[in-house]
Amino acid sequence: MDADSTFLPQLVFAVPPGVHVLDLTGPVQVFYEAATYGKPYRMTYCSYQGAVYSSAGLSLGPLVPFADVVVASTDVVFVPGLEMSYLQSAAFREEGAAFFAWLRALSGRGVRLCSICTGAFVLAEAGLLDGRKCTTHWRRLAELQARFPRVLAQADTLFVQDGGVYTSAGVTAGIDLALHLLEEWHGPLFATKVARELVVYTRRGAGHSQQSVYLDYRNHLHSGVHEVQDWLTNNLAAGATLETLAERANMSPRTLTRTFRKATGISIHAYTAALRRELARTLRRNPALTQEAIAAQCGLRSVRQLQRLLASSTRENPRPVSTF
Predict the structure, then answer these.
(1) What does the alpha-carbon distance between residue 160 and residue 114 come to, in Å, rounded to a whole number?
(2) Concatenated DSSP letters of 70-135
(3) GO: which molecular function terms (predicted)?
(4) 202 located within any domain
(5) Percent of the chain clearing pLDDT 70 (strictly above)
(6) Catalytic: which of 46, 114, 117, 134?
(7) Do residues 182 and 236 share a domain?
(8) Is 114 a catalytic residue?
(9) Which tens digit of pLDDT belongs to each residue from 272-324?
(10) What's the CATH number where 99 sits?
């Protein structure tokens, strides 16, 4: 939908037993902060079990029964993630039957549905993901596809929209989805303001991988290589020669090149390109930044270099490179 400054749907959070707290509170906080900029969303919390305990033992409730909530066709219903042990139990299907029927009825009326993390299993059990593209936490994606063969599970993405159904990956991806919805409803500048209020300076879109380059290639114990990775992550705009990086790691350039690849499985050049690509994709979501500014912050000399970087795959460039 086009951005509409007056659009303020009711946001209904259907809280399941064993809910993961951040799957619930992450999106809630995003919409709460929207009031700071003139968008006071009305949020309603309901459950199909009355009082609810989170997966960490936090008591939530008593909550309004889902059947008592008046939901308009323009409203949005969120289903946060919950414990897999409950999702895999017979009680999940038995106790949730009426709730699943409620979700189906809402969807039939055009109400938009959003799941966070393993909340996708709830939508799938209700039959609402059949034939739809969807996602969940990367660790549970194969299980979702195996258990519900008619869903079109999508790997390596933070959130997916298919018609009026949104599904998102694990934990903090719920924040990304909520910011995306604000952008959809009120425009990118509004969403960016809320992100800043939350101190979320790295906004991620649907195309971002659930895996992060900031965490990838870190499964090693070499302090010198970690030092180089830390410096590159925080100083992309500065640029650095191989010799400068080698000094930081207290190695010769040749030794650093060999050690870095052995520790991470990737070359310094390819790692730096991956960092730049990730940063560029994030910065492009800020409407206040020009392409020239994005290129400069990524340590690139021109917009053309930026365009080539974003168009390239993650494969390593076989040519020797002396600067980064």
Answers:
(1) 10
(2) ---TT-EEEE--B-HHHHTSHHHHHHTHHHHHHHHHHHHTT-EEEEETTHHHHHHHTTTTTT-EE-
(3) DNA-binding transcription factor activity; sequence-specific DNA binding
(4) no
(5) 90
(6) 117
(7) no
(8) no
(9) 999 999 889 888 878 889 999 999 999 998 999 999 999 885 444 333 333 33
(10) 3.40.50.880
